[in-house]
Design a protein that fits this description.
The complex is a heterodimer of chains A (about 450) and B (about 400).
Chain A lengths: L5 E5 L20 H13 L4 E4 L7 E2 L2 E2 L10 H9 L6 E7 L5 H14 L4 E6 L4 H4 L10 H19 L7 E4 L4 E3 L7 E4 L4 E4 L12 E4 L4 H10 L2 E2 L6 H13 L12 E2 L2 E2 L1 E3 L3 H15 L2 H12 L27 H22 L3 H9 L4 E3 L1 H13 L5 E5 L8 H13 L13 H5 L11
Parallel strand pairs in A: 1-2, 1-17, 2-5, 5-6, 6-11, 11-12, 12-13, 14-17, 15-16
Antiparallel strand pairs in A: 3-4, 7-8, 9-10
Helix pairs in contact in A: 2-3, 3-5, 5-6, 9-11, 12-13
Chain B lengths: L5 E6 L22 H14 L3 E4 L27 H8 L7 E7 L5 H14 L5 E5 L4 H7 L19 H22 L6 E4 L4 E3 L9 E2 L4 E2 L14 E5 L3 H10 L2 E4 L4 H18 L7 E10 L3 H14 L7 E5 L1 H14 L3 E6 L4 H16 L12 H4 L8 H8 L1
Parallel strand pairs in B: 1-2, 1-13, 2-3, 3-4, 4-9, 9-10, 10-11, 11-12, 11-13
Antiparallel strand pairs in B: 5-6, 7-8
Helix pairs in contact in B: 1-10, 3-5, 5-6, 6-7, 7-9, 9-10
Classes of the chains: A alpha/beta (about 450), B alpha/beta (about 400).
Chain lengths: ~450, ~400
């Protein structure tokens, strides 16, 4: 039997992949852009809308980066607003486990699940650096191991808080005056070196019981977290064999924790360029790549790696033949940072020399390499092949224009996927996000 | 000339009376549904209510003073995050201001600020916040992050007698500072989309907050570009001198709880005195009086309904209670207007019943009596209250430099 394709719609981000110089590009912040994007994604029957998170404006050499789209909404607030103007599509936001607290984030996600009638999801990420920390009470920095320990305990605590109200907790018996049933709410206590919580949750159990959990990390720690907690992995593995290997590795871990293959979906990020012929699609892909990587974008990219001023270099020329500036030797972590930067530069040189690429073409190769390029038929066939041959369960699709970047995909590719019989032709009435995605909930498992 | 007032409403659960959920008109199993909040706030919007505040607390028992609140089963329990409820309502309403309650001890000020800016974008300029200082021991146990904070009210009932409460108000002041600074951090015209030079924004017009306070520090600019109102409307409820000073220093609107017209005049004088000492905001602090209301077709029916509620659960409230017909309420409004308040925030005893009475009876009667500000078409909440939109503080700095 053929496998079903699942698709997420990624609102274009604040990086060079989002082309703002196009005359049709709209606002990245007006609510009308988000409403337009969400309604179009719902028209395309996407499983969910996906939003990244902003914790601090990007900087370049100590100043705010001014070449790319910048500025975006608060993730939770914009998703709550979109819940009011959509009916069926899931609403998934990226939210840090480092700069939030479990009680508050769990109640916000449960609120979103109530307001959307069961369509809330959380892409749980960890944050590591003092740069972002400078905007938060907590501040500072957690090393890699502690970040993931905190993320795992955070997720576990969130699940316990969401499950702490019985399904039938609210009796609301006007005659007897009992609003709550006896023993309706379980106390959630947890003490470790990271948390010391003795909580009574204040949000009744939400339609999904547990909002969907998405996770993007690819390290061994990230894969362990996903195996234990996630319903979807937002991976970067899009090259076919590599994706199959990732699929086998991650899905292979599930049995040990009593989960099925379908309980964890893998939806890597994917871009696309369509044309009436393959040739035309390739030409468009090249044009879009040149808009995504303008000469100044390419130079800026190198400046970030080298931490040097390259304004005098020709973007159509070869890589600069100079050493990076990795800061003062006395600074803490200097040796590691120095080695990491040098190894990154060695890789850049290797690719540039092997393929004889200019600076700009190298950066295009690295940041504007579109996943699917072809006719709508070819792209639909490719996507279907990835899913049928167990390289992915679908994709998190991103366009290069705000807010209409997925219109063409919806108009041209979705009908072809439907013709192949592997993509839905309607939402199920009143389905939760978990039901739409086909990932098991915990309705049966939690103690009622 | 008749003094005119604005009418706002305060929404919480099944209403402000603890037995309200037991009324036949109540919807006690729907208090955390989208439909419940949509119905309430749309009705208020259609009637011309200037803004709705939405209560919130980070504990199961809320902000009650009942000693056994934690174990009671006869009170409404369970709520939604107010800022997200307001965000949800933004595209579903047209003119009403949306003023969620935000607490200031545990949430990250950066998230609060960007959440309010996003509410302002989504509502096209109708965002506000009711700022609450302090935390309870249960709230601290829920978060488990800090042990410091007030342990109930001091025996005197006066927050100035408790250093922990004084600190809580200083911290709340820092949170408001940061909300305003971050709201100003992008100038209105920071986004230039200059294809020629390849620059999306003019980074000279985006400014780091660079805030260093007693309780936290925040370095960067907001992630959210400047919103339609510039800054959200800041409101606070206050009953005594430290909170009055807090409101005078930081708020645009203060909610007060006079029991009579004389008391209202005295409170206004005290607030104005505090403002003269501590206020830097260029606009006059607006004063709204809170009234808890129960409304029926006749005085007798209203009294009967009130007695029914009181038999089930006697109320303890800070606000003056008015029980009667729409005409009774309008008389109170006229009296308070004459005493000099800018507006009245009505707390319906029962939801949705008393909100329906407000929108269908009180407002039409008050409008006919000429005591309401014109139901104008100003696009933003601040403008409806007569507060002009100001440009970012950072623009002013450049001009004076």
């Amino acid at each position: 039997m053929s496998r079903r394709i699942h698709l997420a719609a990624h609102f274009p981000g604040v990086n060079n992949a989002t082309v703002w110089t196009d005359p049709t590009a709209g606002s990245q912040i007006d609510f009308s852009s988000f409403e337009y994007f969400a309604r179009n994604a719902e028209r395309g029957l996407f499983d969910y809308l996906f939003l990244a998170e902003g914790l601090r404006l990007r900087e370049h050499r100590g100043r705010i980066h001014d070449l790319d789209v910048l500025g975006r909404p608060n993730t939770l607030a914009i998703l709550a607003a979109l819940a009011g103007v959509t009916e069926n599509i899931g609403l998934v936001g990226t939210l840090s486990t480092t700069f939030n607290e479990p009680y508050e984030l769990a109640r916000q996600l449960a609120t979103l699940d109530h307001l959307s009638n069961g369509r809330a999801g959380w892409n749980a990420v960890t944050s590591s650096d003092a740069f972002h920390g400078a905007n938060f009470r907590r501040g500072g920095f957690l090393d890699h191991g502690d970040r993931y320990r905190r993320a795992a305990e955070f997720a576990e605590l969130s699940k316990r808080l969401w499950a702490s109200w019985r399904d039938d907790a609210i009796l609301a018996d006007a005659d007897t005056g009992e609003f709550l049933r006896r023993d309706a709410i379980e106390q959630v206590a947890h003490r470790s070196d990271l948390f010391d919580i003795d909580a009574r949750f204040d949000v009744p159990r939400s339609p999904q019981h547990r909002p969907l959990i998405v996770q993007a990390g690819d390290s061994a720690d990230g894969r362990d977290f996903a195996t234990a907690h996630a319903d979807v992995i937002f991976s970067l593995h899009t090259e076919f064999e590599d994706a199959q290997e990732f699929y086998r590795d991650v899905k292979g871990r599930l049995a040990a924790v009593g989960r099925q293959e379908d309980d964890l979906k893998i939806l890597p990020a994917a871009s696309f360029v369509l044309g009436d012929t393959l040739e035309e699609a390739r030409e468009r892909s090249r044009e879009i790549a040149l808009a995504q990587v303008r000469p100044e974008t390419a130079i800026t990219y190198l400046e970030q790696v080298w931490n040097r001023d390259f304004s005098g270099y020709d973007p159509d020329g070869p890589l600069p033949d100079v050493e990076p500036d990795t800061g003062a030797e006395s600074a803490q972590g200097f040796a590691n940072r120095h080695a990491a930067v040098r190894s990154r530069i060695a890789k850049l040189r290797e690719v540039a020399e092997a393929e004889k690429l200019s600076i700009r073409d190298l950066i295009i190769r690295l940041t504007a390499n579109h996943t699917f390029v072809g006719t709508p038929d070819q792209v639909a066939a490719d996507i279907d092949r990835y899913v049928q041959e167990r390289a992915t369960d679908g994709f998190t699709v991103v366009g290069h224009l705000t807010p209409h970047g997925l219109d063409e995909f919806t108009d041209k590719v979705i009908p072809l996927l439907q013709e192949r019989g592997t993509y839905r032709t309607s939402y199920e009435d009143g389905a939760t996000l978990r039901e739409t995605l086909g990932v098991a909930g915990e309705r049966a498992a939690v103690g009622v | 000339m008749t003094e005119k007032v604005h009418i706002a409403v305060a929404l919480d659960g099944a209403g402000w009376h603890p037995a309200a959920w037991r009324e036949p008109t109540a919807r006690p199993t729907e208090l955390t549904t989208a439909g419940y909040w949509r119905d309430l706030v749309r009705a208020a919007d259609d009637a011309g209510v200037v803004f709705a505040t939405i209560e919130d607390a980070l504990t199961l028992e809320g902000r009650t003073a009942e000693p056994d609140a934690g174990i009671r089963r006869d009170r409404v329990r369970g709520r939604l995050d107010a800022l997200l409820v307001a965000s949800f309502l933004a595209p579903l309403t047209r003119r009403i201001g949306l003023v969620p309650t935000v607490t200031t001890t545990h949430p990250e000020p950066f998230h609060l600020a960007t959440g309010l800016q996003t509410l302002d974008h989504a509502s096209l300029g109708r965002a506000g916040a009711r700022i609450v200082a302090g935390s309870s021991p249960q709230e601290r146990a829920n978060f488990g992050r800090r042990g410091d904070g007030p342990d109930g009210f001091p025996a005197s009932g006066r927050v100035e007698d408790d250093p922990a409460w004084q600190a809580a108000f200083r911290e709340a002041g820092e949170v408001v500072d940061v909300i305003r600074r971050l709201a100003d951090s992008w100038e209105d015209d920071a986004i230039i989309r200059d294809v020629e030079s390849g620059r999306f924004l003019d980074r000279e017009r985006v400014h780091n907050a660079d805030f260093e306070g007693e309780f936290f520090s925040i370095t960067g600019a907001s992630i959210v570009p400047r919103s339609p109102q510039g800054q959200p409307l800041i409101t606070a409820l206050a009953h005594q001198s430290i909170p009055y000073r807090f409101a005078a220093e930081h708020a645009d609107v203060v909610f007060v709880t006079p029991r009579s017209a004389d008391e209202a005049a005295a409170i206004i004088a005290e607030v104005e005195q505090a403002a003269a000492e501590v206020r830097d905001e260029p606009e006059r602090l607006r004063v709204f009086a809170d009234l808890l209301v129960l409304i029926e077709e006749t005085e007798a029916a209203a009294l009967e309904a009130w007695n029914r509620l009181e038999e089930r659960a006697p109320i303890a409230t800070d606000a003056h209670i008015v029980i009667g017909t729409a005409a009774t309420i309008v008389d109170e409004l006229r009296t308070l207007a004459a005493a000099g308040v800018d507006g009245i925030r009505l707390r319906p005893a029962r939801l949705p019943a008393d909100l329906s009475a407000i929108t269908e009876q009180v407002i039409p009667v008050a409008r006919a009596a000429g005591i309401l500000h014109d139901d104008d078409v100003s696009p933003t909440l601040r403008q409806r209250l007569g507060l002009p939109r100001r440009s970012s503080r950072f623009v002013a700095q450049e001009v004076s430099a």
